[in-house]
Amino acid sequence: MNPFQLLSRVEALIDTTIPDASRRRLLLGVSGGIDSMALLDLFARVRERLGLHLGILHVNYGVRGLESSEDARFVKFVARSYKIPIHAFSLPPAEIDRLKESNFQEGARRVRLQLFKNLKAKEGYRYLVMAHHQNDQVETFLFNLFRGAGPGGLEAMKTLSSRGIFRPLLGVDRSTLHEYMKARSLPHRRDRTNDQAVYTRNRIRHEVIPQVIKSVGRDPRSAISRAAELISCDNDLLEVLAKRETTIIFSNPGGINGERLLKLPPALRRRVSRDILSKLGWGDSPAYHPVEALLNWMRTSSTGEVFETRDGRFILRDFDCFKVVDSCYRDPEVKSMLLAIDHPVRLAWADTVIKARFLFTAQNTHRPPHEFLADLDRVDLPLMVGQVHPSDYIRPLGMDGHRKKVVKILNDRHCPHSDRRKVVVVRDQREIIWVVGHVVSHATRVTQETKEFLHLDVVPMGRANP
Predict the structure, then answer these.
(1) How far is it, in rounded angstroms, from Cα 153 to Cα 163?
(2) 359-407 confidence digits (pLDDT tens)
(3) What's the start-to-end Cα distance of the chain, in Å?
(4) Terminus of the chain with fewer CB atoms < 10 Å: N or C?
């Protein structure tokens, strides 16, 4: 593109992208480098004709020491020369150290977006204007491709994003901006870190792309940019379809239509799962691994098993239903209670009373489901009673001491989820010894050598002796 055509292109793009003149209060992200300085000059030249109200955002990240401070002074000087108000920020040392220890470029982006959000609320700016151009588009595409991103990561950056980011130079290559700066004799600052192979994006720019050009015999950047645009169009359609399916599959906050979800084509299935996780505490765009973990769990889980979400809730499988619950089988108001000998305990949540006593003889060791008989020497007192937890295990009688999950036992006995909140579990100081009405423990079994017995009895609350 001819650099002298750039002004008319940007002017036309502003006019079509932001047709409402009342919304043309724009905050320009200016670092002082070539790209952002070209952006600043272009917008300053058309501001009167288009009725733009401009401001400048500059962030001193402090990673280059004195050079970063000089960048800030330069941008402030330029802002005064253009008579544009500036909002300049310097990060505190602790924040700078934190950014250095993590993904700096991603952290810096989050800082900019948060500052824009604050200024938008305080000063009324409508859009943050960034100088991203075609080369940035290509580098972002390749960066995300090498990370194994799907269509959402490979799609082109949008000229106007849903977060209010306006990128009017996406169709312009870097060389055109350099020619524009040269033709206009505009000053700029140079960030030496852009020439260093410190960041992956820099290595893509200085090593990968030149090698591709050498290997294929032509510059692929226009083709990659076009591919990103095509992926973006397809991705937009998939997003619309996924949102529609999400409202059907997860229309009720209390449950997920797993059967419908798992029958969707893979592209939609992943997106709907991502949207569901987003509503359950995973942020705006959950990564690949938690999405696949959820889908794999839904395919392979059994009744009573749970998938823990990031907002403290659980997805609970109840036969063919997937319910979103706050506490699995337990009521958060219910605490484990001490069961003392000869002191009955009322369990209001189970509508029962449980009693414990010692026996020195037992003519019949076979007891009905509401009674339990154990070898007292094998029990580690005191006892506690409470509800089932998804991680609970017991060593059932008849399994030679092997453990089995309590939820598996309840599944095998076809105990519906609605009844599991009332299932009573008795524990000694080592392990579960009785799941009332379902299974007793091998560890406390009665044998011919048993001399003293522990007897437990559970009765409905209305039949309990006062």
Answers:
(1) 16
(2) 988 767 677 888 999 999 999 988 999 998 878 899 999 998 899 999 8
(3) 93
(4) C
